[in-house]
Amino acid sequence: MPVGLRFAFVVHCVADCVFAVPLMVDPDGFLRLLGWTTVDPIAARIVAAALFGIGIESFLGRNAGMEWFTNMLDLKIIWSLCASAGIALSLLGGAQGRPVWGWILLLVFIAFNGIWVFFRLRIRSAEP
Q1: Residues 6+ apart with CB under 8 A from 108
Q2: What pTM was computed for the model?
Q3: pLDDT digits over 43-64, tens only?
Q4: Which spans in the chain are helix H?
Q5: SS3 assignment, position 43
Q6: What contacts 24+ positions apart, CB below 8 Å, involve 106-114?
Q7: Residue 63 backbone phi and psi in degrees, to 5
Q8: C-beta of residue 44 within 8 angstroms of C-beta of residue 100
Q9: Which of 4, 29, 81, 104 is the most buried (most CB within 10 A)?
């Protein structure tokens, strides 16, 4: 496995947990701080759970083999692509007054998707 991919998985764990903790503990306060006008605490905590799950598994499996990385990359590509699409559709529809942090969040998901696609294609080209 490329060292950069293992490093990206650790960075992804940290990024996921940095956002998951406040979403789980105080979703209303955290999201209002970021410009959200209304907050559904159940939906926010479900997102936090997904972030914890994907992020922590990324850290735990960072030394795994090719099959694990391939499966995790597929999951991360699907998650980040669908999240990007959902965020973009919501912002373009005027959700939450289109807060700046919503656009930043969109860019973060797009950037991670690009990283995951890059490594997935790199691994695919190395497969027999």
Answers
A1: 15
A2: 0.85
A3: 999 999 999 999 999 999 988 9
A4: 3-25, 27-33, 41-60, 66-92, 100-126
A5: helix
A6: 108/15, 109/80, 109/83, 109/84, 110/80, 110/84, 112/12, 112/15, 112/76, 112/80, 113/76, 113/77, 113/80, 113/81, 113/84
A7: -110, 15
A8: no
A9: 81
Residue recorded with tokens 């590509």: 77
Residue 99 tokens read as: 């807060």
82-122 pLDDT per residue, tens: 999 999 999 999 998 899 999 999 999 999 999 999 999 99
What letter does residue 38 receive in the DSSP assignment? S
DSSP, res 37 = S
CA distance 4 to 118: 11
Q: Give me the amino acid identity at 76.
A: K
